[in-house]
Amino acid sequence: MFDKKIKLGTMFEFYGQLLTEKQQEILEDYCILDLSFGEISEELGISRQAVYDTIKRAEKQLDQYEDKLGMAARFEQREKAIRHLVDGMREIDVKISEEAEASELHERISELIREASDILE
């Protein structure tokens, strides 16, 4: 449940502007403000079922946008690659402070340069 809500929130961040104003309002309350269906229904003066149905319809639309555009997946992939680069640079920093062999550091730096170039493409 928690992972599903996080995924929905992430997709809302990417594609939320493509939803109706009502869908945006309900998803913002649900994903960002972490309100329950009951709290949202009270706030908006609609039934809990209407809140649930709106979220399900919006979720389906967001999934369709992601299937076609893939922005969230690309963002996640780039984020992982950047984290890997940061880890590599930290590793080099430690090795430099430990006076590692220059050839080993050169190989690691070359690897990080290739990864960074791939991200930029």
Give short descriptive properties of this protein.
Arc Repressor Mutant, subunit A; 2 domains; single chain
Task: Describe the fold and architecture.
The protein contains six helices and no strands. With 121 residues, the chain is mainly α. It has two domains: 2-69, Arc Repressor Mutant, subunit A (Orthogonal Bundle); 74-120. The radius of gyration is 22 Å and the shape is elongated. The chain starts with a helix and ends with a helix. This is UPF0122 protein SAMN03080599_00466. InterPro entries: RNA_pol_sigma_r3/r4-like, UPF0122, UPF0122_fam_protein, WH-like_DNA-bd_sf. Residues 48-115 form a coiled coil.
- State the CATH superfamily name of the largest domain: Winged helix-like DNA-binding domain superfamily/Winged helix DNA-binding domain
Tally of domains: 2
- Please report which band the strand proportion falls in: under 5%, 5-15%, 15-25%, 25-35%, 35-45% or over 45%: under 5%
Looking at the structure, what is the overall shape? Answer: elongated
Q: Mean pLDDT across all residues, rounded?
A: 87
Largest sheet: none
